[in-house]
Amino acid sequence: MEIKEQLERIQQEAKTATEKAVAEGTKAAELKAAEIVKTATEAFDLKLKDAEQKHAAQVQDISVKYDEKAKQLDEALTTLNRVKEQQNQERIKSFADVIGSALEAKKDAIGSYANNVGTKSLDIAVPMDTKAVGVIGRVAGLEGDWQGAVGPAYEMEHLRNAIQVIPTQRDVIKYLRFSRKEGAIGMVAAGAAKPKLDFNTTVEEAPVRKIAGIVDVVDEFLEDTPGAIEFLRTELPQALLEVEDAQILKGDGTGQNLEGLFQVAAALNPALFTDVATLSNSWDRLAAAISQVRLAKRATTAAWVSPQVYLSLLINKDDNAGYTYPIVLNNMGQLTIGGVPIMQHSALAATEGIVGDFARGVKIFQRMGAVINFSTENKDNFETNVTSVRIEERIALPIYYPDGFVKIDFTAAPAV
């Protein structure tokens, strides 16, 4: 029994010692593991902090770059708006303003010329890429007792307002015109022959023609440069534009004349519109003419009538003297019909009018913008102290879509 007890005691002590060793080993392992975890966590925290700092720096850099780009964009938009505003100002310059600017730039040369210093002839080129707007400029601060020059009346609207103006270096504008010949596109069965479509082609030409005129002025007038500039910038361009208007509308194409719109435009044919019983007034005829242009698959962009017809539009009444149509104006105060602006021009006879696609159906090709020349070498100018002032331009007028224009006789009896 004694041996057995001793053996049991030894076994118990061994077990206790083993459990104690295991416990101590586990604790040591746990401590070591905790140390490893702590070290790893601290390293991770350092890396995380470093990453956060780098990210913050990148965000700051991106923010700075964004601010710089935003600033550059704002500056670019400001510049663009300034350029647009300048372009708008250039676009709305009147013909008189354009000439005035050119003359102001040559003010010293004009003064020297007037005082017989240097050449006896002087050329001043005037850019005419901008359209005339019908606004006559004024030079302020005339010197001395000179009160400027007052001339005759001129038209306030010009045809080039409604027509695209294109510069050219050619003396003849050529273009190819297609027209339907025969055949048509149609529906076909699988494997069947396709219908044939054919066109006629013709080469059209619009020669460049010159519009010019001369006015004689005494040297005493020319020496007063501000007064001379005022005179030239109002009288000469307006006189030239009125001839240009007449040629665009009524030129007969013979000699040195342009072929105008009235030469090629179709006449109004009220019989095309069965729902219009009678074309009893000017509004009906304008509406029918616009519809006739649309039947030709064109779009009317403007209507021009005589001042007399314009009046009939304003005062149109029924049998009881009541106004039958509302006076429709756009936001510019322009009389319109179906959204089409109506302009008046004295180059048209009292009962005439024309509507059409002035935006695409016709173009003004400008070989030479208005040029003003001064010279005393004309007739007896040198002896009499007179200077001849000449203005001239060279333009062509190709009419691409003759079927895009309809002329109206407001006195003709309606077709039955």
From TrEMBL:
Sequence segments annotated as region (Disordered): 1-22
Name of this protein: HK97 family phage major capsid protein
Species, as recorded: Pontibacter mucosus
Domain Phage capsid-like C-terminal: 155-410
Compartments, as annotated in UniProt: Virion
Domain of life: Bacteria
Entries under InterPro entries matching the protein: Phage_capsid, Phage_capsid-like_C
Pfam families, per the entry: Phage_capsid
